[in-house]
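Aim 2 progress update. The chain analyzed this quarter is reproduced below.
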Amino acid sequence: MDLLKQIEQSYLSAFREKKQAALDVLRMLKSVIKNKTIELKKEMLDEQEIIAVIKSEVKKRKDSIESFKSGGRDDLVQKEQAEIEILEKFLPAQMSEEDVRAKAKQVIDALPEEDKENFGKAMAAVMADLKGTADGAVVSKVVKELL
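Predicted structure tokens:
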């Protein structure tokens, strides 16, 4: 089943079961996807574009969690964390740090000698190779350690 249909099915399920938190998050997600479709002047987004939208929403919530923690708002931290859990159900499984390290080492070793010292080029090569299967923060940390 494609991702958009999965989101729609989850939305309808949350609606039937009267799960207000999930319903709110999924309604927002559908809206963001629709807005992105309009912005890109497309009829429908492909899977990778939808995944990028979901990742963006997860990142927004992670940033909010940091702000709420520094402000002492544990109630809002829990709300944002619950929303992240709902959104992450639609993302592909993320690689572990060990797997990222092994893959990044392979990619960096394959780079030309002059690019091995350039963090930006190394990071771009590793991210292109991993294609969304790993969290960018984890990849960044691993590439910094390897360089």
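The chain has two domains: 3-88, 97-146. The longest helix spans residues 47-70. These observations will guide the mutagenesis experiments scheduled for the next reporting period.
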